[in-house]
Design a protein that fits this description.
Strand content: 15-25%
CATH topology: Rossmann fold
GO molecular function: L-phosphoserine phosphatase activity; magnesium ion binding
Helix content: 40-55%
Largest sheet: 7 strands, mixed
Structural class: alpha/beta
Distance between the termini: 16 Å
CATH class: Alpha Beta
CATH architecture: 3-Layer(aba) Sandwich
Pathway: Amino-acid biosynthesis; L-serine biosynthesis; L-serine from 3-phospho-D-glycerate: step 3/3
Family: Belongs to the HAD-like hydrolase superfamily. SerB family.
CATH superfamily: HAD superfamily/HAD-like
Mean pLDDT: 93
GO cellular component, one term: cytoplasm
Number of domains: 1
Low-confidence stretches: 1-8
Cofactor: Mg(2+)
Oligomer: single chain
């Protein structure tokens, strides 16, 4: 799609997924590896991101595999996760043009809080892993545990901040981002599966978020 042909309004809010978008990892997979359940959880993650498994079901199954993982070990695995190439530059560009940034992730605060500060994200919504006696219980709490829950959080941000959906750009890679694509003024599938790419205005295949800067520049012209 040629972005320069888009009849675009002035975009004010730029919404990102976290896993495999702003960061170069799936947090749940990293935690599962630390818990000795990498293969089981990564398979469920692939099914969920491809839209081949109900998201609510996949979320509950994956988190259950983390039961009895020591919290300190979980944090150590999160500390190894790298930011996606180009993410700092993209966020800096958005802020330089007066835009606001949001991260809506079905992942967990153990990672989301870190990357909020490292990338200077304005609004962050995530889930929280339940910890008891220093161990994960295999449960999570928060607003992003069910199918299309991202859409409800998106609505909350737009309403409370006074934005219009047409003024929002969404960037994501998974099936659970499609509900946001359908509401936003413009959507970008970032290294996404074919089924997700088909739902976006444009797809980016290079694993570098700096590739989005010229796209956004065309939108704003």
């Amino acid at each position: 799609m040629n972005c320069s042909t888009c009849a675009a309004p002035s975009f004010k809010l730029f919404v990102f997924d976290m896993d495999s978008t702003l960061i170069d990892a799936e947090v749940i997979d990293e935690l599962a590896a630390a818990a000795g359940a990498a293969d089981e959880v990564s398979q469920i993650t692939r099914l969920a991101m491809n839209g081949e498994m109900d998201y609510t079901e996949s979320f509950l199954k994956r988190v259950a595999f983390l039961k009895d993982l020591p919290y300190e070990k979980a944090m150590a695995s999160v500390d190894k996760i790298q930011i996606m190439p180009g993410a700092p530059e993209l966020i800096e560009y958005i802020h330089s043009i007066g835009g606001k940034t949001a991260m809506i992730t079905c992942g967990f605060s153990v990672a989301a809080d870190r990357f909020k500060h490292e990338l200077n994200i304005d609004y962050v919504f995530s889930n929280e892993l339940v910890v008891k006696d220093g161990l994960l219980t295999g449960e999570a709490i928060g607003p992003l545990r069910t199918t299309n829950s991202k859409e409800k959080v998106f609505e909350k941000i737009v309403d409370e901040c006074g934005f219009q959906f047409s003024e929002c750009v969404v960037v994501g890679d998974g099936a659970n981002d499609v509900c946001l694509f359908k509401r936003a003024g413009f959507s970008i599938a970032f290294n996404a599966k074919p089924s997700v790419q088909q739902q976006a205005n444009i797809a980016v295949h290079e694993k570098d978020l700096r590739c989005l800067i010229p796209i956004l520049k065309d939108l704003i012209i």
